[in-house]
Every structure is written in C-alpha cells, then in structure tokens.
C-alpha cells in the first residue's frame, strides 16, 4: 500500500514534468539539504555537493518517466540511494554493498581508534554520533539514512534496498544498537 | 520473544495499545525506546548541514527555451546553403541554354567514359548511341 502525495507535491511533480523552472527551484529548495546530508553520510563530505547536483540532474532527466505509484519523495531518495551506491562502487569496483561500508569506514576514519571515553559536551556528542553513523556498514547506514533523512516508511525503504521489510527493520535495529554501543563507548549514556 | 514482536514500534516510536501494555510491563523495552529516542534526537540535532550548491540550470526549461537551439540550427542551415549554393540558396545555372547532365557511361567492364553534356535530353540520347556505336 502506497501513501499518496499531497496536492502540493502533485503540483510540484506536474511542474517538473512541464519543465517549469520554479518547480525545479522548489524541488532543490525543499529537498536539497536532505539529499545533500544523505549523500554526505553515504559517501563522505568530499564530493557530496557534486553528487547532490547529479541526483537533481538525474531527477530532471527521468521525471518524465515518473509514474505516481508511490510517494514522490520515495522515488527521489531511490535515485539518491542508487547514485550514492554507484559512486561508492566506482571507488572500489567489484565490491559488494556490505564490503563498501568497511572500505568507506577505513577511508574516512583512518585511525580507527575510539575517542577517549569521557563525558563530552553537546557539540562533541553530536559530532561523535555523526562519525558513528559514518562508521556503520553501508547496508545499515542506507536504511538508517533513508529513514532519518528521507523520512520513508520501512516498506518504502525495503523497496529501495531490494529486501523484505523485516530485513530493513533488522538493519535499522542493528544500526541503532551499533550507535548505542558507540555512544556508550564514548561515555555518553 | 515477546519483545521481538515490537521491533518496528521500538524503532519508530508510537505503537498501539498492545505495545503500550508491553512497555508498561517490560523494563528492557522501555530502556530501548528511551535510548533509541535519545539517539534519534541527537542525530536530528547534529544533522543540520545545508546544501551549499546552487540550482543547476537547464536550457530545456521554459516555454521559449527551445528558441536558442532553433536559432542556432537555422543559422547552421543558412551557412550550409551559402557554402553550397553561393549565398542565394539556389545555384545559378552557369549555362542557361539546354539541360546539363553528367553521365558515367560503361561500355565494357574494363572501359568507361565520363561525359558532361550541355544539351537537351533528346540530343543526349543521340550522343550516347553514337558513343556506343563508336566503341563497337
């Protein structure tokens, strides 16, 4: 069962299909930050801006073929997700999605050493949590970010990830447990 | 086992009366829910970066956006006509009398003649017949 889009969203999609510049600007204004954050967590800070722009280019090119069988935002994040995984694969071809998480972790957190277990200030706690999200295996990170940045249901996430809903729920659960362990290791909870 | 039934509710928050009843009785699940909520709250506070890029520009946008492309295509056609036909769009007949034709006549597999005539079509066929006879 899909959740229908609102009237405003339908209007946005109609505008995009008609090639109206104001619709496109609205799309970037409303979703640019979320897509950017999704890309940034998925592939790292370097290149996230270009990747976000490429996602919008892909949306622009393929919106004519979009058929409203589900929510537009789900379709949008499916494009972002596919593009992020393509980019990750380009870095390391013939690598599975599960292995990519490890590869990106090693690249972005070269030391691998945990931060000192001390009580951190709020700003540090937030930074530590973002780093912990970055260290998640890609399959868990994908589900976590589609949920948090995309605001998608687990049914929509499962469709994008190509897995059963229970698998998506399980990955989210593992992600939450992993983040909880990380925060406890930092003396946060 | 009972706790695993409420995985989605624990992760998503909310849940129906059955889940609330379970939470009231299960301290472990209550702690899970509280800590998950804290993690998500912290994440939402932390994840605030703005997209630093601008809106990409596409020439396809707008009702009249095809005009520059059409103008460029017309210009290209004009240049081609000028190059091919001397600028007027129509090649002037250099010899206005009669009909100009270019023939490649094969009289045998190893011999051929290329002939350009500037005559009427009737005269042309006479010439071809004459040429064929001369080759015999």
Q: What can be said about the biggest beta sheet of chain B?
A: 2 strands, antiparallel
Unreliable stretches of chain B, pLDDT < 50, 5 or more residues? none
CATH class of chain A, named Mainly Alpha
Task: Supply Rg of chain A.
Answer: 18 Å
Stretches with pLDDT under 50, minimum 5 residues of chain A: 98-113
Count all strands of chain B and give the number. Answer: 2
* Net shape of chain B: rod-shaped
Q: How many runs of DSSP E, i.e. beta strands of chain A? A: 0
How many domains of chain B, as an integer? 3
The pLDDT mean of chain A sits at 82
Q: How many structural domains does the protein architecture of chain A include?
A: 1
Secondary-structure element string of chain A: HHHHHHHHH
Mean pLDDT over all positions of chain B? 74
| Helical content band of chain B | 40-55%
Report on this structure.
The complex is a heterodimer of chains A (189) and B (136). Chain A is an all-alpha fold. Helix content of chain A is 71%, strand content 0%. Chain A is globular and about 55 Å long. Chain B is of the alpha+beta class. Chain B has three domains: 3-46, no CATH class; 66-91; 99-135, no CATH class. Helix content of chain B is 51%, strand content 14%. A two-stranded antiparallel ribbon of chain B has the order 1-2. The longest helix of chain B is centred in the N-terminal third of the chain and has 20 residues, at 27-46. Chain B is rod-shaped and about 115 Å long. Classes of the chains: A mainly alpha (189), B alpha+beta (136). Chain A binds chain B through residues 19-21, 24-25, 28-29, 32-33, 35-37, 40-41, 49, 52-53, 56-57, 60, 122, 125-127, 129-130, 133, 148-149, 154, 169-170, 172-173, 176, 179-180, 183, 189, and chain B through 7-8, 10-12, 35-36, 38-40, 42-47, 49-53, 55-56, 58, 60-62, 65.
């Amino acid at each position: 069962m899909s959740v229908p889009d609102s009237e405003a969203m339908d209007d946005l999609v109609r505008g995009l299909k008609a090639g109206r510049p104001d619709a496109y600007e609205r799309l970037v204004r409303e979703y640019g930050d979320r897509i950017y954050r999704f890309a940034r967590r998925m592939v790292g800070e370097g290149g996230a801006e270009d990747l976000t722009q490429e996602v919008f280019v892909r949306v622009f090119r393929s919106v004519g073929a979009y058929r409203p069988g589900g929510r537009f935002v789900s379709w949008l994040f499916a494009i972002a997700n596919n593009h992020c995984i393509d980019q990750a694969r380009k870095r390391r071809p013939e690598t599975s999605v599960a292995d990519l998480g490890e590869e990106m972790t090693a690249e972005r957190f070269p030391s691998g050493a945990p931060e000192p277990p001390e009580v951190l200030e709020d700003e540090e706690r937030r930074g530590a949590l973002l780093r912990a999200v970055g260290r998640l295996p890609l399959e868990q990170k994908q589900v976590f970010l589609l949920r948090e940045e995309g605001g998608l249901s687990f049914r929509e996430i499962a469709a994008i990830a190509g897995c059963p809903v229970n698998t998506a729920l399980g990955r989210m659960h593992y992600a939450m447990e992993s983040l909880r362990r990380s925060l406890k290791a930092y003396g946060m909870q | 086992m009972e706790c695993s039934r409420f995985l989605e509710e624990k992760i998503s928050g909310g849940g129906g009366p059955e889940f609330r009843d379970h939470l009231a009785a299960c301290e472990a699940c209550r702690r899970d829910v509280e800590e998950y909520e804290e993690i998500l709250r912290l994440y939402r506070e932390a994840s605030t970066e703005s997209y630093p890029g601008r809106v990409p520009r596409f020439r396809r946008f707008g009702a009249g956006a095809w005009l520059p492309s059409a103008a460029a295509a017309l210009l290209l056609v004009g240049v081609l006509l000028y190059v091919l036909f001397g600028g007027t769009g129509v090649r002037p007949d250099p010899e206005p009398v009669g009909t100009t034709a270019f023939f490649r006549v094969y009289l045998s597999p190893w011999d051929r003649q290329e002939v350009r005539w500037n005559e009427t079509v009737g005269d042309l066929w006479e010439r071809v017949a004459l040429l064929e006879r001369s080759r015999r």
